[in-house]
Every structure is written in C-alpha cells, then in structure tokens.
Amino acid sequence: MSVVPDGEDAEGPAADRRPVAARDSGFARRLTAVLLKTAITPNQISLASVAFAALGAVALFWAVRWPVLYLAVLAAVQLRLLCNLLDGMVAVEGGRGSPVGALYNEFPDRVADTLLIVALGYAAGAGWLGWAGALAAALTAYVRVFGGSLGQAQDFRGPMAKQHRMALMSLACVLALGEAFLMTEHFVLYTTAWIILAGSLLTCFARTRAIVSRIRGETKP
Which residues contact 182 (CB under 8 A, 6 or more apart)? Predict the structure, then answer.
C-alpha cells in the first residue's frame, strides 16, 4: 500500500540501482526539478529519510495508546520512501553525486529500517521480535552489497526487500487503526513483525542462492 515506491538509489552504475517505476513519473521529476533549484544535496535528503523514520518510530511506539498516531506513522513511512526516491534522482539525474554518496545511500537506510522495525516490535509487545526483524532486514542489504562486491549486479529481489517491508508496514498501520476500535490486542502489529522477520530471512536465502548460482555459472568450463 506504499504510495511512494522504494528508491534505494546510488550514483553508481545503473545496474546497481533498484528499478523504480516512480522515477519516470511526472510527480517525481517535478519534485527533483524543484530540489535542483535549491542547494539541497542528495546526502541531506538521505539524512532526512532517517529523521522521518525516527518520527515514525516514536509515533508507532505511542500509537498503541493513541491509535490516531498510526496515520502519522503511515505518513512518516511514505516520506521516508520519498526521500529514498529523490536522493538518487537528485544525485544521478541531477548530476549532484558526491564521492561519499554511496555511504549516504546505504547507511541511512539501515538506520531508518532499524528504527521503524524495532519500534514495530515494541509496539507489538515483543521487543526481541523487532530487533530480530531489524537484523534480518540489514542482512538482506548485506547479501545484496556482498554480491556487488563480487562483481555481480546487485540483486534487489524479494520477497521482503525494503519496498516490501515498508509497504507492509503501511498496510499494517491502516489495519491496526481499525483493529484499535475493535479490540485491545495488537494482533496486526505482531503478525506484521513476524512476516518481516520471516520474509527477510527468506530474501537473504533467495539472494544468496542467486549469488552462488551465478558464481557456479561463471566457473563452469
């Protein structure tokens, strides 16, 4: 239910950019054009995504008591994804990439993921589940980047890549808001945290298997 698709964009080769249909949308291009008229850098946009994630995490933690805050979480997740889209467009299409752009492309994403997923676990009443999900989510990125370090095109496949995790969290916010008016349990959040953990582990397996398959294909006589 993600309004803004994920844009884990770097100023590296096009093969190492996540395919994102929203880059071709008029909305994204107009926003990019506006940003290029300012002094805002792609790295600052990447850091802004962490700020939105932090706000979303705080809102999610308190949404259990004040359910209307689920709407704030939903907005924060979408703004985080919008930043993920625009940082790459300003860097690549706008020609504002920097030597440290790859670091700003990856590190803020890991922090933003951790903030939101850990908060999800605590909001669901299972903090350990949030930490486990955050670790598994970070491992999906590690496997992807490791494949790139071997000279392979980075693999953005799911089933629980970043855009899938954030789409699921967005849907969970809507369902949890409705659940809050029907019962005091937090079944939606708890189930979502488990899906993120299991799906992220499955994603790690799928990406690792693809890396091994490509290596074996390259080494065959």
Answer: none
